[in-house]
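<given_protein>
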Amino acid sequence: MKTNKNIYLPLLTAALMLTLGGCKLLKPVSQTAVVNTPDKFEGQPDSTGIGSVSWKVFFSDKHLTALIDTALQNNLDLKMAVQRIEMSRTNIMLSRGLMLPRVDAEISGGGRKFGDYTMDGVGNYDTNFSDNLDADRKLPSPFLPDYFAGFRSSWEIDIWGKLKNQRKAAYHRFLASEKARQAIVTGLVAQVANLYYALVYLDTELDIIRKNIALQETAVSTITIQKEGGRANELGVRQFTAQLLNTKSLEIEILQSIVETENALNVLLGRFPQPINRGTSLEQILPQETEAGIPSQMLRRRPDVQQAQQELAANYAEQQSAQLAFLPSLNITALLGFNAFKGNLLFSTGSLAYNALGGLTAPVFNRKPLKAASRRSEAASLESLYAYNKTVLTGFQEVSTSLKKIENTKKLSDLKKQEVEVLQQAVATSQDLFLGGYASYLEIVMAQKSVLEAELTLTNVQKQQYFALIELYRSLGGGWE
């Protein structure tokens, strides 16, 4: 009976309409930032800001710049970041490859035995009795080999842009990995500078403690002589001695802190523990200009903000790709080579074989994996949007905090300097009064203890000034160039 091929047309049309009817795309996630950034930082003029200054210019200490340069060459976190960039680069190559035809060389062999009571079995048996077949065309029986040598190709035509969006996502992730490396550089420069200034001021604290140890040793000797002369008692000697021992214990604590800080800095430099060459606190000069600049410029400079922005774009592209997976895909397959059921005839001209096939395929049933992937990509896109906004908020918070800290530590440093001067005068006065019999040894001990604490506090405040300035420099995106 002759079959009317036109009866298949309505069925194909109905199937295509059903497929397209179920391919409604989800509404893309809006990527409009919900954070409205201020026009400028409070109390700051419109300027380029210190973030645009190179770290080689920003830090004037030659010992520090040498350490930063070593860290940028040897730091292991930075080297790992470079390798992550290379991994992201390969993802771009992979996504590009998916858009091109895939061609595989193939050499294969196999065979099978058809049942005697099957269509193929009967047909092969009957074929061998044909007078039209020569010896080479006779089918081997009962086992029918199959040999192939040639090329097979498959190609998905990106008619909707699904693969293009995958490539775009890979590209944005590559840019994000580069920004992540820059963020590590910025943080590394700040870490090295912080540890360096911590060492400088630990040396200053050590000098203060040793100066006080010398003064207290003199005081112990003096009161011991006075005890022998009957002008003091054993209690006074023990009080001065206890104070001396307490100060010596502080010296040991500072020495241990120096060792720990040097070792931490050496880890950043990618080397084993060794002494760190450094200057003194008197040689350190704070930059006079500490402008934060314009917020929009800060956002363009901060690597973590740019990284979050690239991650946002990558997740958005992946979301679009996941939604386009619901649409029909056009696939083309092709074959070219030699195919035969006898090995000695495989490469003869009569064994040449080729074919080409193209078709649209679309998911109709069991689309749950595609829906799950789409929902996951939508959630990831929203998460990256919130992460971007959080990064912007964090950046502004860091800059604002650092600006206020610089301002307040300057005021605090001035007050602490005056306090130290007053207490030093109090120590001298108490010693004079003690010699004249108008003050007790306890008053001298308390005066010396107060001036030591004030001097150490002043040193810590000065150190915090440097830390605040370094944090401002980092938070403005400085140091990665």
Remarks:
- The chain has two domains: 27-99+160-327+369-475, 101-157+329-361.
- The mean pLDDT is 85.
